[in-house]
Fold this protein.
Amino acid sequence: MQETEFYLSLIWLFVAIITVLMLFLCYLYLAIKRALRRESQSLAFSHLAIEGMETERRRVSRELHDMVLPLVQDTTVSGLIRTICMELMPPDFSKLSLKDSLGDLCARFSARTVIKCACYIDEELNFKAISAENQLHLYRMVQEAFTNVEKHSKAGEASLVVRRLIVSSTENILICVSDDGVGLCNEPSNHRFEGLGMMSMRQRAAIIGAKLDFISESGNGLMVRIELPSSSAVNTESSGG
């Protein structure tokens, strides 16, 4: 009798353990499902927010060009307005490649600031596998990085490097914007990149599946590092038609 009770106790213990394990797995499954749903909703919201931002950029650029510029007589002011319009409007990637657009962005940055800017873009890079929409995301991220260098870095020199990066036998695209300014480490609470600029860069990186890092060491300025996996480039090609 005692032996029977012992085996029954073991069976009930086993059933209890299995039940707890099943409940835990169900909870884990539901938690992951909720997290994935929230992530999907967040990504969809980011996409809508970025689309709204681009629409507003185009609207402001057209109004400045069509309504304000004709009223301006001063050549310096009119030149400034044309520059603002050019910065707001997206490049036409059907006519100008992302490679040339990034080179032009670097040249304009150097021309309008006192910051020397070196530019290296791998000639063998091909962005044709990336949709025009996602090329624009990359362009805007580099543009925002240069804007932060101009406004906050106190740098004397900056650089743009765009090259291939081989990771586990796959070819990724690496984009780095660096400066020799104050970086993040010397500023209280690291407020340099907080705000809409950093948020929009993170949103764009999430949309295209890129890895975005802000790398800063004391006395070595800041590097904005964007790595786009080749798998993301393939996906963008299919989604871009």
